Amino acid sequence: MKSILGKRLRQLREEANLSQSDLARAVGLSHEHIWNLEHGKRQPSLETLAKLADFFNKDVSFFLAEKEAAFSLLLKEKSLNRKVRTYLRHFKSYAEIYLRLESLTGLKATPAPIYQTPSPDQLAHEERQRLQLGTDPVGDIFSLLEINGLRLVRQALGKDTDIVGIFIFFDQEQAAFGLINASLPEEDQVVEAAHLYSHYLKDRFGGPLIDNSDVFLDYYLSLYHPREKFAQEFALAFLLPPTKLQEILEREIKKSILHYEDILYLHRLLKISIKAILSMLLRQEIISPTRYKTFLKFDSEKGEKLCFKDLFPPSKGKLKRGQIINSDRFCRLAIEALRKKKITTEEAADLLHSDVNELSAWLAI
Questions:
Q1: Among candidates 224, 211, 215, which has minimal Cα distance to 166?
Q2: Rounded CA separation 16/298 (Å)
Q3: Is there a single domain that holds both residue 332 and residue 304?
Q4: 160 and 116 in one domain?
Q5: 210 strand-pairing partners
Q6: What is the pLDDT, as a whole number, of residue 39?
Q7: Are 123 and 198 a contacting pair, CB within 8 Å?
Q8: Domain with 8 in it: what CATH number?
Q9: What does DSSP say about strands 175-181 and 209-212: parallel, antiparallel, or unpaired?
Q10: What pLDDT score was predicted for residue 112?
């Protein structure tokens, strides 16, 4: 990887008639950093690779050795601790099983098109049109994205890790996967799923992409790569078109100044995270930046218990660290592989966390 990257980086730089200092200034790195990369003295982070790829208008894969796998690159990311690396190896194994089930059943997901759309709102509009979603809120987004080629793996990484999601594309299999931290509240997982879908539609070949919790907060997004701001704005518009939100406000809220209980009501009505609701309202200038920051500090759980006490759902059991939630599509593939006798009942029961005898009885019906 080092020699390939260094050679190709130097080649591109010289073709562009840039000195190492020129390139360093252009991508926000030091001259020493560029020198080390070109001479194989340093391995780049995913963010550095993305900056270089964007600057030279290349895919990240251009800088990698032909045999360099996407997961190998991901596991070299220095920001990941040992525990997270272990979970990611589980994710890799799960992804391989997923692809094997697709191969055994002949039910490979149909990929969505790749867009060059310049605006996140326009991309959201075009993709909603393609999927014939109308203007209603997206229902089961996890299933929707999976049948359109983004295979989602929801794995409990813990609330103490800053990772909310990872996008990764397998070049050889031409298969996209999104990892979502299932330790997060489900409404945050919904927003992250839509965020990852933007990467899938627009940044598919951009190498592994790691999202942290800052993607949920508008005033932090400017600190990150422009694609993150694009992806988050897409996510909000894809989950709920701005016109639909305005319609709901006029029909249900019927007032110009919103209070926190109104935000809680919208959250429960739309099944979208409070942070996402606030970002939507801020983008449409329905609330001010000051009110946005104030509402972010509120204790939503306490407010929800107070305002919607009778409706407040019991808390779900906690997921174990590293545990993965099987998607509906994954389960269907496992059952189909079993029905086609491509895997044994024991294998299927293990994948589905089911009792072998009960599964056999079900299939006999």
A1: 211
A2: 51
A3: no
A4: yes
A5: 166
A6: 83
A7: yes
A8: 1.10.260.40
A9: unpaired
A10: 93
Question: How high is the pLDDT of residue 316?
Answer: 53
292 and 338 inside one domain: no
Q: Tell me the β-bridge partners of 324.
A: 155
Residue 150 main-chain phi, psi, to 5 deg: -100, 100
Exposed/middle/buried for residue 49 (C-beta within 10 Å: 0-12, 13-18, 19+): buried
Q: Strand, coil or helix: what is 327?
A: coil
Sorted by sequence, the CB contacts under 8 Å of residue 9 that are 6+ apart come out as 34, 37, 38, 52, 63
CA dist 76 and 19 (Å) reads 28
Token pair for 284: 């449409």
The torsion angles phi and psi of 264, rounded to 5 degrees, stand at -60, -40
Asked if 223 and 88 sit in the same domain, the reply is yes
What is the span of the domain harbouring residue 347? Answer: 326-364
Q: Which of 147, 162, 56 is nearest to 108 (CA)?
A: 147
Q: Are strands 175-181 and 150-155 parallel, antiparallel or unpaired?
A: parallel
Locus of tokens 């400017």: 222
Contact 224, 214 (CB under 8 A): yes
Residue entry with tokens 């389960």: 331
Q: Which residue shows structure tokens 């994710």?
A: 91
Residues of the chain with pLDDT under 50: 1-2, 66-68, 310-314
C-beta separation of 156 from 184 below 8 A: no
Please say whether the beta carbons of 120 and 230 come within 8 A. Answer: yes
Based on the structure, what is the number of domains in the chain? 4
Token pair recorded at residue 330 = 């994954």
Is 318 a domain residue? no
